[in-house]
Specification:
Elements (H helix, E strand, L loop, with lengths): L14 H10 L7 E2 L4 E2 L18 E3 L4 E4 L6 E7 L2 E4 L5 E10 L4 E4 L12 E5 L16 E4 L2 E5 L6 E4 L9 E5 L10 E4 L6 E2 L5 E2 L3 E9 L2 E4 L18 E4 L4 E5 L8 E4 L13 E3 L2 E3 L21 E4 L10 E4 L2 E5 L2 E6 L2 E5 L2 E5 L2 E5 L5 E5 L2 E5 L15 E5 L5 E3 L2 E3 L3 E6 L49 E2 L2 E3 L3 E6 L11 E4 L2 E5 L1 E5 L6 E10 L2 E5 L6 E9 L3 E5 L7 E3 L2 E3 L3 E5 L9 H15 L9 E3 L11 E4 L6 E3 L4 E4 L1 E5 L2 E4 L21 E4 L13 H8 L2 E2 L5 E10 L6 E11 L3 H6 L106 E3 L3 E3 L6 E3 L6 E3 L6 E3 L6 E3 L6 E4 L9 E3 L9 E4 L14 E6 L2 E6 L9 E6 L7 H6 L3 E3 L1
Parallel strand pairs: 1-3, 2-4, 3-5, 4-6, 5-7, 6-8, 7-9, 7-10, 8-11, 9-20, 10-21, 11-22, 20-23, 21-24, 22-25, 23-26, 24-27, 25-28, 26-29, 27-30, 28-31, 29-32, 30-33, 31-34, 32-35, 33-36, 34-37, 35-38, 36-39, 37-40, 38-41, 39-42, 40-43, 41-43, 42-44, 43-45, 44-46, 45-47, 45-48, 46-49, ...
Antiparallel strand pairs: 12-13, 12-19, 13-18, 14-17, 14-19, 15-16, 17-18, 51-54, 53-56, 54-55, 57-58, 58-59, 69-70, 70-71
Length: 1005
C-alpha cells in the first residue's frame, strides 16, 4: 500500500528526473533543510532550528520523513522533496507556496487508502500568484506541483454527482437527490447540471444553463441552497432520463491564489510501483480549483507551453507491464486548457467531476494511453471560435480521445461543444516533408498486439493510435451539447471488418447527434436513443460501413444526412420519432454538367456495387425477418491466393463474409467520387500484401519472419503447415466480435523455420474475446493476458479460409460487451484501494419456504455482502449490497444479486442470474440492471413484496418502454393505479410482464 512506501534511492534510469528537480531547486541552494524526521512546525526538524518562513527555499532529503502540520501558512518559495512529506490528520492545514518539486523515489502523501484524511479535516495547498521567470525557468515548470516521485492523496470519500428525484425548475431553492449524501455538507459548492442547449456567443464560446450554488441545509435527501435557480432543469417530452447535481467541494484542495494571475498546475511523472495492487500514483477525492494555465484559446508558445494542466499524468508509462495510476472521485473546476489529462500513461480515471473548462474535459493526449474512464461527469467544456487553432483537443469536447482503447462506460458529458471526440492526429517525422496522405509502416507503432482486445489489422506490420476499434463503450450519456459524438480519421484501418461498437448510448437536450467525418468507417450504434433539435446523424463522403441497430432518433430536423454512397450502411429496427425529415441525401453529382458523365457514374456504381448513385440511401431492415447465425464465416474467392513460402512472398486475400445481416465483401471500402465526378477517391477490397517490400507511397515493409512471429505456425492433421490468422469480424446484427481464422498455407519452408514459430495449440479466443485481460486488478504490474501458444489475446485478427471456423467459442455471450471492470464476464477487480468485502465462509441458513412462494436458493459459490463494489467468483454467488450506491458483479455462474437500498448497478455476467427486489428496493431510487438476458435464463425475483400467484401480477408490476430501456415499475397498493419506478433494465424496451411470465423469467419469494 502507499502508506508503506518510503523514500528510496533514485534509480539510475530516472536520472533525468533529478535534473528536472535541480532545474527548479538545487539542494545546495535551499535556505531551509530538514535534518530529521518530525513535524514541520518543530524547530528540531530543521537545520539550525529554523522553521521555514516567507520566501523559504526548502529541501527535504531522501532519508527524512516530515509531517506537515501548519495551520496558517507563510508564503513559501520552492519545496524540493527527495524524502517523504505527509500531512497531519489532527487539524486543518494550509500550504501557500510557489512550487513543489519531488524527485524519483520520494513520496508526497495527503492520506492513504487505509487512512484517508478525515472528512472534518481540511488540507489546502495554494499556489502563489508571483511572476514566472523564463530566465531561471525557461520551461515554465514552476508554480505548481511537479512530482517525479510517488503521489498519494486520499480525501474523504464523496459522491461526485447524484441523480435528482424530480426535475428542478427556475425559482427552486431545494432539490431532492437520490443516493449517498453522507459527506455532502453545508458550505459545499454544488452544480445543478443544465439540460438545454443554448448556443454560442459571438466569440464561439458555448453558453450553458449549468448553475453553481452553495448548500445551506441538508435534511434527509433534500438539499437547500443559497439562491433560487435561474433555469428549468427538465427533460424532453416522451423521454424518461435522469437529471443530475454534482458536488465540487472536497476536503483536500489544490488551488491558484489568483486565477487571473499566475495559475498553478499539477503534474505527475512517476511510473514506479511497489508491486501488485500498488498504483504508481493515487489521487482520490481531492479538488483542483482554478488550476492549470495552458491556454487553449491562445497559440502554444514558449510563454504558453503545453502540459500545465489542473490534474495531469505525464508520460508515466505505456506499453505492456506498466503500472497504473488511479484518479478517482476528484473535482476539477475552472481551467483555460484541459481538465484531467492522461498523457502516454495507463490510468483508471473514475467517478470524477470536471466543470468549466475551455478545451477538453478528460483527455487522452497521444493515442497510446490505456486504462478506463468510468462514471465521470463532465460539464461546461465551452470551446472558442477557432476550433482547430492548436489541433484537436481545443474544440470543447467533454471527452477528448486520441486513444481508442480506453474503456469508457457510464460517463456523462453535459453542456459541451462535443460530448465525445475521437480525432486522430498525425505527428510522425517520416511525414514532415511529405505532401498528401501520411505513410503507413512500422514507424507508426503505438501498441503491442496483446494490448488490444480486437486487432483490426493483422496483416499490417504495426498498430497505431487510429487503427483499433473503440471497445467497451457502453452506457454513456450526452446532455445539452452541440454535438454528441464525432469521429475523424481512422486512416490506416479502413481495410478492416472490425467495427467500433457504441452501445447503450443516450443523447438528449442538445443539437446534433453523431457525426462521422471522412475516414471514419466501420461503426455500429446499438441499443441507443439519440434526441436533439438538429441532425441525428451526419456522414461524410469518404466514410463507409455504418450500422444503427435498435436505435431511436427523436425530435430532429433531419434524421440521416449523407454526403456519400452509404456503402454497407444499414438501419436495423430504427425508429424515427417526431423527426421532420428522416433522410437528406446530398446530390453526389451536383457539379457535373455532362449527362453522359452522370450516367457513366450511375452505371458504374449500380453494376459494381449495387448502389443507386442518384439516391444512395442506407438499407432499412426489420430484424424479425433475419435469422441470427451462430458464427460469422468467410469464404475465399476462387482466385484468392492464400499460400506463401519459399519463392512466393505475395498474398491476395479476397472473399465474402456471411453474418446475421447477410453477405458483405471482405475488407471492402467504397466511397463517392468528388461532386465534380473526379475518380481520385480510393476503392478496394481484400488484402494484397507482398512481404519484404514497400507499397507505393507507403512504408509497410512487413517481413515474412515478422508475420510468422505474430501469427505463428501450426501443423494440421493432414500434415499441412499453416499460419492461422485471427481476423475479428463484427456480426452486424448482434454487434458481437467473431474470431474468423484465415489459414495461410506455408509452402516450401524448411522444418527449422516452421518449428521456430510453432504454436502449442490452434488459436481459440472465442466470440468477443472474453478471455482478454485488461489487467485492472494488478495495479503495480499490469500485464494483459497474452499467451502465444494459445493465441488467446486481442491481437492477430483476420477472416476465415476455413469457412469461419470458431474453434471452441464456448457459450453465447450476452448481447452487451463485457469489459473489465464494467461489465466483463470475467472482470478483474475494480481498482478500489480500499479492501473489498471478504466472502463469508459459511452460507446463511436456508430460509423456511413461504406457502405459495419459492424459497431463496442458496449459492454454490461465495456469499459477499457489503457496501461499494462487490465481485463474485466464477461460481454461482450471492451478492448483497448495503444501503448506498453499490455496484455488484456476478461474473460467471448462476448468481443472485440483491441491491437493497440506493442507486445500485447490477451486472449478472454469464449464466442464469437472479436480480432480486425487496422492501429495501422500494426507496424511490432506481436500480440499474445492466445485462438482463432472458435467453441466458436470467430472472427478476420479487422477495416479500408481491403475492405468490401470477394471475394478478399486472396489478403489482409493469415494464414501461423508454427509448431502448425498460422501466420496471411497482404498485405497492396492488391496484394497478399507483406505479413507481424501481429499476431500469438496459435493452429492455421489448420486455413485458406477460412475456417474462411466459418464459419463466419471474420468480416470487
Amino acid at each position: 500500500m502507499l502508506s508503506a512506501h518510503k523514500a528510496k534511492d533514485i534509480p539510475p534510469v530516472n536520472a533525468h528526473h533529478t535534473d528536472a528537480a535541480d532545474s527548479l531547486l538545487k539542494a545546495a541552494k535551499a535556505t531551509h533543510v530538514a535534518v530529521r524526521d518530525g513535524n514541520w512546525s518543530d524547530p528540531d526538524t530543521w537545520q539550525g532550528g529554523r522553521v521555514p518562513d516567507a520566501g523559504s527555499l526548502i529541501h527535504i532529503p531522501s532519508d527524512v520523513s516530515i509531517t506537515y502540520d501548519v495551520k496558517t501558512s507563510p508564503a513559501f518559495g520552492t519545496l524540493r522533496l527527495d524524502g517523504t512529506l505527509s500531512w497531519t490528520h489532527a487539524h486543518d492545514t494550509e500550504m501557500l507556496i510557489e512550487t513543489v518539486v519531488t524527485s524519483a523515489g520520494s513520496l508526497l502523501e495527503i492520506g492513504t487508502a487505509d487512512d484517508p484524511l478525515p472528512a472534518h479535516i481540511t488540507a489546502d495547498v495554494v499556489f502563489r500568484d508571483t511572476p514566472l521567470n523564463m530566465k531561471a525557468d525557461p520551461a515554465l515548470l514552476s508554480h505548481g506541483l511537479v512530482a517525479h516521485g510517488k503521489v498519494s492523496i486520499e480525501g474523504a470519500e464523496k459522491e461526485s454527482f447524484l441523480t435528482l428525484e424530480d426535475a428542478a425548475r427556475a425559482g427552486d431553492t431545494k432539490i431532492t437527490a437520490e443516493g449517498d449524501l453522507g459527506n455532502w455538507t453545508v458550505g459545499d459548492t454544488i452544480l445543478i447540471v443544465g439540460t438545454e442547449y443554448v448556443g454560442e456567443d459571438r466569440n464561439g464560446v458555448l453558453q450553458t444553463q449549468d448553475e453553481e450554488r452553495t448548500i445551506v441545509a441538508i435534511d434527509g435527501d433534500t438539499i437547500t441552497f443559497d439562491r433560487p435557480l435561474d433555469h428549468d432543469h427538465t427533460t424532453p417530452s416522451g423521454m424518461k432520463v435522469d437529471t443530475y447535481v454534482g458536488n465540487l467541494s472536497r476536503n483536500v484542495t489544490f488551488s491558484s491564489e489568483n486565477p487571473e494571475g499566475t495559475r498553478g498546475h499539477f503534474m505527475m511523472h512517476n511510473g514506479e510501483s511497489d508491486g501488485a495492487g500498488d498504483p504508481a500514483n493515487s489521487v482520490r477525492y481531492a479538488a483542483f480549483d482554478e488550476m492549470g494555465r495552458t491556454d487553449k484559446s491562445q497559440d502554444i508558445s514558449a510563454s504558453n507551453p503545453e502540459g500545465r494542466y489542473p490534474l495531469h499524468l505525464h508520460m508515466t508509462g505505456e506499453g505492456v507491464g506498466v503500472s497504473t495510476s488511479v484518479l478517482e472521485g476528484n473535482a476539477v473546476t475552472g481551467g483555460p486548457g484541459w481538465g484531467i489529462v492522461q498523457h502516454s500513461s495507463r490510468a483508471l480515471i473514475n467517478d470524477n467531476i470536471v466543470f468549466d473548462i475551455t478545451g477538453g474535459g478528460i483527455v487522452s493526449e497521444t493515442g497510446n494511453e490505456t486504462g478506463a474512464w468510468m462514471r465521470n461527469l463532465v460539464s461546461s467544456v465551452t470551446g472558442y471560435d477557432e476550433p482547430n487553432k492548436n489541433g484537436d483537443g481545443n474544440q470543447g469536447a467533454a471527452y477528448e480521445n486520441q486513444s481508442r482503447v480506453i474503456v469508457q462506460q457510464d460517463n456523462i458529458a453535459a453542456n459541451s461543444k462535443l460530448g465525445w471526440n475521437f480525432s486522430g492526429q498525425e505527428d510522425f517525422a517520416e511525414d514532415q516533408n511529405r505532401n498528401g496522405a501520411p505513410r503507413d509502416g512500422a514507424h507508426r507503432k503505438m501498441f503491442e498486439r496483446e494490448q488490444v482486445k480486437f486487432d483490426p489489422s493483422p496483416f499490417d506490420v504495426a498498430l497505431d493510435h487510429e487503427e483499433p476499434p473503440i471497445v467497451d463503450f457502453t452506457g454513456n450519456t450526452v446532455i445539452g451539447s452541440e454535438e454528441a459524438f464525432r469521429v475523424y480519421h481512422r486512416q490506416f484501418s479502413d481495410d478492416t471488418d472490425t467495427m467500433s461498437v457504441i452501445r447503450d448510448f443516450t443523447v438528449w437536450g442538445g443539437q446534433n447527434g453523431v457525426n462521422l467525418k471522412n475516414y471514419s468507417s466501420n461503426y455500429e450504434f446499438i441499443d441507443s436513443t439519440i434526441q436533439g433539435s438538429g441532425e441525428g446523424f451526419r456522414v461524410e463522403r469518404k466514410t463507409s460501413a455504418v450500422v444503427f441497430n435498435d436505435v431511436e432518433f427523436r425530435d430532429f430536423g433531419t434524421g440521416w444526412h449523407s454526403y456519400g454512397v452509404n456503402h454497407e450502411s444499414f438501419l436495423v429496427d430504427v425508429d424515427f420519432v417526431n423527426v421532420r425529415n428522416e433522410f437528406k441525401i446530398e446530390d453526389l453529382m451536383v457539379n457535373i454538367k455532362s449527362g453522359a458523365q452522370k450516367q457513366k457514374l450511375v452505371d458504374y456504381y449500380r453494376e459494381k456495387y449495387g448502389i443507386d448513385y442518384n439516391n444512395p440511401k442506407p438499407g432499412v431492415i426489420d430484424s424479425s425477418k433475419l435469422k441470427k447465425v451462430d458464427k460469422v464465416t468467410f469464404v475465399a474467392d476462387r482466385d484468392a491466393d492464400l499460400k506463401v513460402g519459399a519463392g512466393d512472398s505475395r498474398l491476395e486475400i479476397k472473399g465474402k463474409i456471411y453474418d446475421s445481416l447477410g453477405e458483405r465483401t471482405f475488407n471492402e471500402y467504397v466511397v463517392a467520387k468528388t461532386p465534380a465526378g473526379n475518380t481520385g477517391s480510393k476503392e478496394f477490397d481484400g488484402i494484397d500484401l507482398r512481404f519484404g517490400s514497400k507499397a507505393a507511397g507507403l512504408q509497410i515493409d512487413y517481413t515474412f519472419d515478422e508475420f510468422l512471429a505474430v501469427h505463428g505456425t501450426f501443423q494440421k492433421a493432414d500434415g499441412t503447415w499453416v499460419s492461422p490468422v485471427v481476423n475479428w469480424i463484427t456480426d452486424r446484427l448482434t454487434a458481437e466480435q467473431h474470431p474468423v481464422i484465415i489459414e495461410i498455407e506455408l509452402v516450401g519452408l524448411d522444418r527449422q523455420k516452421l518449428q521456430e514459430y510453432r504454436l502449442d495449440s490452434y488459436p481459440n479466443p472465442g466470440i468477443d474475446n472474453k478471455g482478454f485481460d485488461y489487467g485492472f486488478g494488478d495495479l503495480g504490474a499490469d500485464k494483459p493476458g497474452h499467451d502465444k501458444g494459445d493465441h488467446d489475446d486481442g491481437g492477430h485478427n483476420s477472416g476465415g479460409h476455413d469457412g469461419g471456423k470458431d474453434e471452441g467459442e464456448g457459450q453465447m455471450p450476452d448481447p452487451k460487451p463485457q469489459p473489465v471492470p464494467e461489465p466483463e464476464p470475467k472482470p478483474e477487480p475494480k481498482p478500489e484501494p480500499k479492501p473489498q468485502p471478504e466472502p463469508i465462509p459459511e452460507p446463511e441458513p436456508e430460509p423456511a419456504p413461504t406457502p405459495g412462494k419459492t424459497p431463496m436458493p442458496m449459492p454454490d459459490g461465495d456469499v459477499v455482502r457489503g457496501n461499494g463494489t462487490l465481485r463474485g467468483s466464477d461460481n454461482g454467488d450471492l451478492l448483497e449490497g448495503g444501503s448506498r450506491k453499490d455496484v455488484l458483479y456476478g461474473n460467471d455462474g448462476d448468481d443472485t444479486l440483491i441491491g437493497n437500498a440506493g442507486a445500485n448497478k447490477l451486472y449478472g455476467g454469464e449464466g442464469a442470474d437472479r436480480f432480486v427486489f425487496n422492501d429495501a428496493s422500494l426507496d424511490g431510487i432506481r436500480d440499474d440492471v445492466k445485462d438482463f438476458d432472458v435467453s441466458e435464463g436470467d430472472m427478476l425475483v420479487f422477495q416479500g413484496i408481491v403475492p405468490g400467484a401470477h394471475g394478478d401480477l399486472n396489478d403489482w408490476l409493469r415494464i414501461e418502454k423508454s427509448g431502448t430501456l425498460g422501466i420496471l415499475q411497482y404498485d405497492e397498493t396492488g391496484t394497478g393505479k399507483s406505479f413507481e419506478d424501481i429499476a431500469v433494465i438496459r435493452d429492455g424496451r421489448g420486455l413485458t410482464i406477460e412475456s417474462l411470465i411466459g418464459s419463466d423469467s419471474i420468480d416470487i419469494l
